[in-house]
Amino acid sequence: MKFKKLTATIGLAALLSAFGGVAAALPADAEPAGDAHTVATVNVLRGKVPTTNATEPLQPGSAEVMAAPEKATDGSVAYEGDEAGVTEIAAGPEVSSEPMNGWENWKDVYLQYALDDPREIREVRLYHNQYSTSVSTFKNVRVQIATDAEFTDVVYDSGFADYQETAQTQGQAQVVTLDKPVTGQHVRIWQRGHYIESTSSSWKGMSNKVRFREIEVMASATEDEAAALTPRNIAAGKIPYVWGLAPTNIAAISDGDWDTYATHNTPGENWLQFEFKNSYDVTSIKLGLEPGTYESIKAFVLAGPSATISKTTGLPEGGGAPVYSTSSLTVDGPITMEFPATKGSTVRFVLKKDETGPVKFSEVEIMATGDSYDESDPVYKAPDSPFTKLVWSDEFNGTRVDESKWNIISGMANHGAIYNRDAVSIKHGLEGEDSNGYLAINSKNYGTTDALVRAVGHDPYPGEPLKDKQTWSSGRVESKNKYSFEYGRMAVRAKVNDSQGIWPAIWMLAQDETGHDEIDVLEYLGQEPWTAYMTNHYGVWGHNKGQDSGTAGTYESWSQKFHVYEVEWTPQEITWFIDGQKRFATARDCAGGCDSRHSLPMFPILETQVGDGWVGDVDYAKRWTKQDSDFLVDWVRVYQSEDQDRVRFDDLEAERPADGEYRLAPISQTNVAAKTTGTALADDKNNFFYGGQPRYEDSRLVSTDKPGQLVYEAAGLKEVRLTAYYKTVAGQKTLNGVNNQWEGTSIRSVTRDGQLDFAVYASPDGKTWSAQELSTHNNFVDAPPAYARHTVTARGLPADTEFVKIVFPDVSGVTYRVGEADVAVEAGDVQLAKVTFLQERRALDWTELLPATPVEPGAVPTTADPAPATVPTADPAPAASPAPTVAKPESAQAGAATPRSLPKTGATVGSLLLLAAGVCGAGVAVRRLAKSC
Hints:
2% helix
């Protein structure tokens, strides 16, 4: 039976004062010390900007000596990520060859603040920088207070002393309490770097950085300030973060109605927490629960939410002692928790009623005072950027996913899930507007592998059966072969789903999947709810693969709200933003001249991976992993500069769609045969993939009796990229010592240089042709029977280029050695899978071009039977001979946009199927086999 608000109360300690600022909570039964809580205090440093004596640049080659001067006084003590959300200066140059990175030669540096007026100062609180998996000893910390800016009249000096953080005190304030109040107007905070010790490995090292998340100077409150410090219920209307299974009616926990229940559905011990933007002095808590006996109840007031959650206990790791703790308690009315005022921005409740039951909350009241009670989020403002023209977007306001823009992956097994069409949908009205739509990528547990396959199907690689733990369905959409871009800014407004083993991601891959070119706009590991990962991957897996990554923390789980995740990509730098605020940037180069900033087209991917790999397993006990949840995307928008080059491509289908804004079909093709999805080695789709990505390559071309040729007509072509596959040498494989995978040998690498290379020619008129210089990128070669993927690129085409011709290699008479035998190269051993172009935007009127398969948002795209078209072909000469003149077809002269049915010899080319393969997902080594990443 429900109890009323004014029933029996359990008192734990006297409410000592509505004001105060102790650094750590006292035990519930502890007595107050001296008069520490008899005077109201207020933080008088809020909003002040410091000066500094630091002169060391924060980065080599930079003139900046202080970063984010406003952050240490913005009112938030929350951890925003390693080395993020801090005011930062440097004590001296780091010299790795010297002991302790050269610490002895650094100088003590300070941040100096000026108050508006002289104040009676009682305490200073220092919230140093924090690491998720390390603790620090902050060197030579010193606090000085003076009446003048020159510090000739110092009224307080703590002296230099190290402050050592522990796993138990991580993130909490270093509190400097004055023996007696002093009156001063200027404050200096000194330090000389910090010594870092990893809590997850043996690594240790000295950093020259001095960083503060927040600095508070607590002074005696004036009468007006004291009057404004009346405690209020900061939990009112606030939705807490709930870890574990999806809660029921969670809004009831803070709606002011003590007669309705919010249910935490995770059985046994569970937890939730209220996460605030501002920091408050929490003075008391009133907790309403369903009547009954509870094995344990704990409440914490913390400086920030946490860093990680234990996969063993399901509880947050780190944090201080509880402000309230009890066991074997029979509850028949609200619990009032009274304790000395405790500073924090997170209030956590850990409860256990019994081993199997959920916990029902009727209401939570958190009484606190603070400098500001404004918990609203700032309105999103796009970052300053050279890319301001919206060139491509999806607002998801239709009734179905627009498949003229997205491929829906179906049947592909990845980690613990199978991607399928039914896992992606459009939902409406989630934020109160019925007209506004959202892409919903659903992750659902079907319980058993058999039940999963019956429900969603499976398109397996041969010899790779599903594992018993693969019981989940999930979704993935990507714009490959429908939209790609080279340089620009992509913004995605999304609300991630969370819990153990859930892995939503927003990322980009190279259109031709060269090497490991990948930009992860966001990766979110469900058991790290307060961390967003941002990563740039480059190089070739198993050879020169590299990456550079950053993290972004937050005061409130990223899964609680929609956020705008954004990346700006230029030839010089890649920069990440969240909600318009810069969070990470990289200009890192890589060894061996690899293309670390991706001078090639890339396409967006939205997905949720489940279990295994980097994120780790789901909770098979079904306590800490939501069994059915959605990753929601409100919109995707791509911006470029006004006259930026456009990416177009040819997928080599037998029935090409009409030339469109992103598609370009050849005006002729000769001496080629189509390869599709047969069972022979050269036809099997399972042999044509890269990195375990979905198997799109079911429309490929090979030469027939002569070297094949394709001719394209389009003004302003600047770059051509060929995605080519070469047979691997049968029986040859070696274990790659870097990635521990079997690696094959491409026949291109065992024949004479250039024998099996494609050729690319450019022409202003289709009559005179010039050979173009080519570069070939060699990717990781999977072991036979897989074909080796190579990317051939011609950059910097002549400015007057109107025609491009691609010529296949002449394989006649070419052999390679296998053991003691010479093996002849056959036409099917060299295949072309895709042609990608970069074209000047100003070269033609793009508004006259149609999408490849135009559909209304939400409509089901259909493929019309193509009108027959007679396309002239050229009888090509060998590549070494003068190139032939190409006649301009009548349809091209008229500007017609009908589909092109090109001459085809050999097997019929089928429609592009969205087929699938095992993958080791975004942000880590992406491979065919779902390995542990």
